[in-house]
Design goal:
This protein has about 475 residues and is of the alpha/beta class. The protein contains 16 helices and eleven strands. The chain binds adenosine-5'-triphosphate and magnesium ion (3 copies). It is an enzyme of class 6 (ligase).
């Protein structure tokens, strides 16, 4: 079943249960606390928070999502994309736990010939929050799921809140057992590679005064109107229904791997290190194109920096597959062709997307060529001296003179079995910033030479490193 059919069946199923179909919001919303939209519920937040009356009691959507904190998992686990589609159904004070469980179960287990996904009920597991015996009871009563396939989890996995006073509630996650070839027995608490999480049901029932059960706090009350927020991972369901090994091999991601195979002359599936690179390329190409399609351009901080880092990782990974020529425009075309039918902005905006990746790639390739030589020498020297830590001043020189972002140096070092003296790097960065400030101050009081100050600004004005994980 192709991805389009999976989302189509989802939306039609929930429309048949009285839900209004709502289009995906863009990846960027006007919310300073959120780098990218990372869940289906984001566009409905005002209704959950009671800031605006919901125009419908029930809604369903397939939302574009970007989760940059998952970037290090990409290609290594079988199930994490940086861009993925989350299908969801939402109740604003309408149905609650019972409806959410019933509707989800019906869709996943109904035979394919009748519009469902036809998953084998004997392979389904569910988790509930600690003492949410109500949910556990409903699973048994409504679906016949035996008690031993309903597992309890604590707040880290199975309690949802917004990290601020407001609504919160227990979750129930739905897992599919891929079988003994994929890992250990014992349900999702034992092995999340074998038991793959496909759907999360959030039962919004509590009022949180402050932070959350994770810190041992109890809710301060019950919501007057209880809500449902669910998210089903479309790529994960596609992995199962298409009988492939991981989310990168599904119909809307795999074609980029094919293009990378053509470029490199290497075959996906021949060795692990290359396979991870192929998957990173396919994943990041999709995310990059979708982000540019929603208006992001590469830059040195915030969203632009995330995009830049994704594009650079594609280029680096392709080089590690032995490819020297520019690749981004070719990958962008493949993404346009696979994702364009669902997101027409990728087709109408393609000239711009194409231009953005062309310029970014040109700039990065020249940086790479000069910096890589310096890096190799520094790495060689470190190893020759019997060390395994690249000196902070080397990382600084690479950054300062060759425009190497620190994360690139970290990655390249890791590939050679080295670490980097990040502390030393940061000290030098801070010293440089202090110098630039002193120069600026001198300039203000009439001392110092204007042209020198300009030079400092031009060189360093925008080079501040923003830790990737600090961003979201
Ligand atoms: P995981 O534990 O696997 O990281 P999660 O619990 O963080 O997933 P949720 O926040 O519950 O995920 O999101 C709802 C659903 O979206 C998940 O059940 C899963 O099917 C899907 N999903 C979450 N993160 C990703 C991702 N990085 N790539 C693909 N699908 C994802
Ligand atoms: Mg996660
Ligand atoms: Mg989870
Ligand atoms: Mg989850």
């Amino acid at each position: 079943m192709d991805t389009h059919e999976i989302t189509d069946r989802f939306l039609r199923h929930f429309e048949s249960k009285g839900h209004t179909r709502v289009p995906s919001a863009p990846l960027i919303l006007d919310d300073p606390n959120l780098l990218f939209v990372n869940a289906g519920m984001v566009q409905f937040k005002p209704y959950f928070l009671g800031e605006a009356p919901p125009p419908y009691p029930r809604a369903t959507s397939v939302q574009k999502c970007v989760r940059t904190p998952d970037i290090d998992e990409v290609g290594k686990t079988t199930r994490h994309n940086t861009f993925f589609q989350m299908a969801g159904n939402f109740s604003f004070g309408d149905y609650f736990k019972e409806g959410a469980i019933e509707y989800a179960w019906e869709l996943i287990t109904k035979p394919q010939s009748e519009g469902g996904y036809g998953l084998d009920p004997d392979r389904i597991w569910a988790t509930v929050y600690n003492d949410d015996s109500e949910a556990a009871g409903l699973w048994r009563k409504l679906t016949g799921l035996p008690g031993e396939r309903i597992q309890s989890r604590d707040g880290k996995d199975n309690y949802w809140d917004m990290g601020v006073p407001g609504p919160g509630g227990p979750c129930s996650e739905i897992y599919y057992d891929r079988g003994p070839a994929y890992g250990r027995e014992g349900g999702p608490v034992a092995d999340e590679d074998r038991y793959i999480e496909i759907w999360n049901l959030v039962f919004m029932q509590d009022v949180r005064g402050d932070l959350s059960p994770k810190l041992g706090h109890k809710p301060i009350g019950e919501l007057p109107k209880k809500n449902i927020d669910t998210g089903m991972g479309v790529e994960r369901v596609a992995t199962i229904l298409q009988g492939v090994e991981n989310v990168y091999e599904t119909d809307l991601v795999r074609p980029v791997i094919g293009r990378a195979e053509e470029f490199s002359g290497r075959r996906y599936g021949s060795n692990h290190a290359d396979d991870v690179r192929f998957r990173v390329i396919a994943d990041h190409a999709r995310t990059g194109v979708l982000l540019i399609g929603d208006g992001v351009t590469p830059g040195n901080d915030g969203r632009g920096y995330v995009l830049r880092r994704l594009l650079r990782r594609i280029i680096r990974s392709t080089r590690l597959l032995g490819v020297q020529e520019p690749v981004l425009q070719e990958f962008a075309k493949v993404v346009r062709d696979t994702m364009g039918p669902t997101y027409p902005e990728l087709v109408s905006g393609f000239d711009r997307i194409n231009e953005v990746v062309r310029i970014e790639e040109e700039a990065f390739l020249s940086t790479l060529t000069s910096g890589s030589r310096i890096f190799d020498m520094a790495a060689e020297e470190t190893k020759r001296g019997g060390g395994d830590v690249l000196a902070g001043d080397k990382a600084f020189q690479l950054h300062d003179t060759y425009g190497f972002p620190i994360d690139l140096t970290l990655e390249m070092a890791a590939e050679q079995g080295l670490t980097v003296d990040e502390e030393g790097f940061r000290t030098l960065m801070n010293e440089q910033r202090t110098r630039a400030k002193a120069d600026a101050a001198a300039r203000k009081t009439g001392h110092g030479d204007l042209s020198e100050y300009r030079k400092v600004l031009e060189q360093h004005g925008e080079t501040e490193f923003l830790g990737y994980t600090d961003l979201q």
